[in-house]
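This protein record is not my work; I was only asked to verify it. The record follows directly below this note.
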Amino acid sequence: MLRIRSFTEPEARRVASWRYEPPYDVYDGDAGNVEAFLRPTGGVHAHFAVVDSRAEDDLVGHCCFKAEARVAGQV
């Protein structure tokens, strides 16, 4: 079962280092800005870990809401 929850710092570091092949490279993380995954914006978290609760909360993805979810250059 998949579950969405706040990032732990190790999970945030892992996701920040993920890289994708073009054209999906617009979704690359920023390993130098791990805080962006951990820091609330306006008091509310925008970035979340997606974990598999059947596999000891193994990190399987992430999601983002609010303005942070917008991809640069996209409408």
Observations:
- The chain has one domain: 2-63.
- Helices lie at 9-16, 35-38.
